[in-house]
Every structure is written in structure tokens, then in C-alpha cells.
Amino acid sequence: MKILVTGGLGYIGSHTVVQLLQNNYEVIIIDNLSNSSFTTLEGICSITNKSPKFSRLDLRNPLKVQQFFDEHPDIQGVIHFAASKAVGESVEKPLLYYENNLNTLIFLLQEMRRRNLNNFIFSSSCTVYGQADLLPIDENAPVKTAESPYGNTKQIGEEIIKDFSKSEKQFKAIALRYFNPIGAHPSARIGELPMGIPQNLVPFITQTAIGKRDKLSVFGDDYQTADGTAIRDYIHVMDLAEAHMVALERLIKEKQAKNYEVFNIGTGKGSSVMEVIKVFEKVTGEPLNYELTSRRPGDVEAAFADTTKANQELGWKAKHSLEEALISAWAWEKRLAEAEKNEI
């Protein structure tokens, strides 16, 4: 079975491609390399001993998208990761985010409709909940007004898919609302590869520990939490990748209760920023230079998942610990540093 993975050289996409290849799916990747590296494809191949097909393509071009599907008529499912994802950048460049994150989705769905292609998984986010009224957050929690254009594109994207699913009765879709992916493949051959200054906590931690960054900024120490720092649900990227494969099999085997479903993908446990720092220092033996600073606009105080629905209906559950995720992230950072040294 051939599966299209858009954004398949990105962080979550690449780990999902590995999972699919290791479970004997045939994979074709689309990526425009705007926020990823071609070297990731080498990592995928070295892990799996398989070579997925790759097409460098910008999904914002509808004629190119149509041509791609003309050339690959045997695709049987689509996992859609390709999107811009930096919250701060989305505030500065909202039109870029609306164009990139929504037009690409629409063009994909148009081609799927034309070709009667019905299995679709959407990369969504817990940002749709904002600061939830109740913790942990389940799928029935209200979707709050978005704090950023990025968050809004995820909300609108879900609405587009939901409406499309109502109009096309054969179409089947699952939106996975991720919490906070961290870590890397245990081989350290692929991992999170931020372009420029990291927007996420763990790569900032590892880059500080390796010496790429002078210090780590902890944004806010006055939240109503045990240590004053914000709480998030940190999920190992390998668990997240497995969730995509399980969701795909649910679509293919027609196990859905309805043709559009939403699942939270997290661990069900919240960890504060300071907890993550302390665990990293403990498992790696690397002291971190960090400073407490003011809150960032748009950051919520606490968010962690109620994963009951994913556990029961998908038959999926996160297996990896925070410690394992941080050890793998550190191994990946050290491998990157070694590769850079060898290039010099």
C-alpha cells in the first residue's frame, strides 16, 4: 500500500516515515525543504535499509499538485504534515501562514476528491484548546480563540476537513492533536532539526548543553504551578510516529465510528519547564546555564492531555518516558555536533 507523506523530511514526518517503512508500507515523500534538510532522507534510508520515493514540491502550486497525483495514481492514503509551525513567526507573517497552511490543505483535498482517494490523516495541535478550563484536556474541551495565526490555521484546517467529510460520505479522516513532541530516533540518525534559533524547549536545552547557545531562557516563573514555570505534556516523537501508523490502519480497516474523528496524542502527564531541565541534567550529567525571564505572549500556563479516547478507541498508548526522550535528544545533538566537526 502506497502512502503519501507531505512534509516527510520534517521532524515528526521523518519519524513517521520510518515507522511506516518498517511496517512494510510503501512511502512517497513530498517536501519543499523550506524547514527541513535533504540529509534527513539519508537518515531514513540508513535506519530502514529502504529508499522511499521523494519529490521536492511546493504544495502551494495547485498545478504541480495535480501533476504529482497524475504521476502517482496508486496512492491509497495521505498523511499531511507539511505546514509552517513557528508561533512567533506566524504573528509576524500571518499571510504566509494562512497561505501555506490552508491552501496546501485545500489543494490536497481537491485532488483526493477528484481521484476518489479517501484515507487522510491531519497533523493538528493541542494549541486549538488554548488555556483549557479543565485539566487534563479531553477531545470535548472547547476550542478557544486562537492565540496566534499558526494556532488559527490548525483550527480552520480541522473545520475544512470536517466540512469536507460531511460533503463526501466516502471520505475518511482523522485529526491528531499533538501535545509537545520531543526526542529523536534511538539510532540518533534523525531528530529535531530546527532552522535558526529553536522555538521549542528541548532543542534549546540540548543546544545550550552542547555550547551552541550561551544560556537557556525560561519564559515565566510566576505561573500558578508548583515551581512557577509552565506545564506541558512532552511526548516522545517515536510514540507520536506510532500513533500515525495506528490511525492509518484504523482508516484502512474501516474501524471508525464516523468518517471524521479527532484524537489527543500525548502522555497524559504534565511536566514543568524546570522539571524538564532538572531531568535533563540528571540523565545526561550536563549542567545547564539558564535564566528566568518574563513570560512570552501567547503561552498558556498548563496543558496536558486526557488520552483515554486514543487509548481505548485507537488502541494506542505512549510507551516512552521523559527520561528516554531527553537521552535520545541529547544523543542526536551530539551526533549533529560530531557531523559539523567532521565537515570542518
Automatic annotation (TrEMBL):
Q: Specify the domain of life of the species encoding this protein.
A: Bacteria
- Which prosthetic group or cofactor does it need? NAD(+)
According to UniProt, the reaction catalysed is:
UDP-alpha-D-glucose = UDP-alpha-D-galactose
* Major enzyme class: isomerase
Keyword NAD in annotation: yes
The catalytic activity of this protein is classed by the Enzyme Commission as 5.1.3.2
Task: Provide a Gene Ontology MF annotation, just one.
Answer: UDP-glucose 4-epimerase activity
Q: In which pathway does it act?
A: Carbohydrate metabolism; galactose metabolism
Keywords from UniProt, A to Z, are: Carbohydrate metabolism, Isomerase, NAD
> In what residue span(s) does the NAD(P)-binding domain sit?
4-325
Q: Name one Pfam family in it.
A: GDP_Man_Dehyd
Isomerase in keyword set? yes
Oligomeric form and interacting partners: Homodimer.
Tell me which family the UniProt entry assigns to this protein. Answer: Belongs to the NAD(P)-dependent epimerase/dehydratase family.
Under which name does UniProt file this protein? UDP-glucose 4-epimerase
